[in-house]
Amino acid sequence: MIRTAAPPRATGPGAAPDLGVTPDPEGAPDLGVTPDPGAAPDPESPSDSTAESGDRHASPLHVGIIMDGNGRWAQRRGLPRLAGHRAGARTVRRIVSAAPRHGIGVLTLYAFSSDNWRRPALEVRHLMSLLRTHLRSETRRCAEEGVRITVIGRRDRLDPALVREIEASEKATRDGGTLHLQLAVDYSAREAILRAAQAMAAHALTHALTRTRTRTRTRESDADAQTDAGDADTGDADNQADAGDATSDAFRTHLSRALHLDAPVPDVDLVIRTGGEQRLSDFLLWESAYAELVFTPRAWPDFDEDDLGSALADFARRDRRFGGLAPAAGSPWPSTDEA
How many domains does the chain have? Predict the structure, then answer.
């Protein structure tokens, strides 16, 4: 089901956006993952209904966010597009801090698509520099708050200095158990699926050749004529085993490896796209097969914890049957009179 969120909230005509590259240490307090139980209530904290949006979910959620609208946000304010990307980076910090409070276990953020290489070279350089700076400045905080960082996507086209920063962040945060933060960089879902399919086919071919060589050596070393008939049956079983290896779980393993993950992550439960567009743009296509979709016109720099809570509350109201049927009235079993 597709749902469009409420339109943007009005802002004061005299309010000027904060354009600092790094957060102001004297500004708003950092939203920690574990609030101080003895602290006084924060009048700016989200409402109870928003803060408890994650409590209705039986297990941690996987939420993917297409962070769109940075450039348009800046242009509407007469600012360069780069200012929008800097503002969007600050939103990332707020949402990452808020996510565990809303029952999110995996948060995947679409930072840079493979198609984004088509953008002006100056903008691409700025985005890559911003990503490197963000990783360097946030890794320690993420490690302290139990946030594990992984970067999915291609790395062969990234600057070696950025790749080293990615690897350092992943190593420093690998034990994080509060939230798994995935940053999709130079990412294309279709390309990742293609690489996984190629790897799976190569794996099956290697095993088939190994079995063939083993059977050949067995035949050559066995003088019993009846062995040949037995080997024919064994060959059929081996062929069936090869076909059985082509399972969804096996493919997920190959897909994880193509994305530089050490193990598959849960499927996506909810995809949120900011900025008003209503498409997936080659984002987590395999993992989002049964994901719910929420599109909001609010640009990413304006997206806040209340917006996240609203999207999750919308998600919680939806009836997810994964292709099955809802139980018939008065019965624990699904209705049988529906197609």
Answer: 1
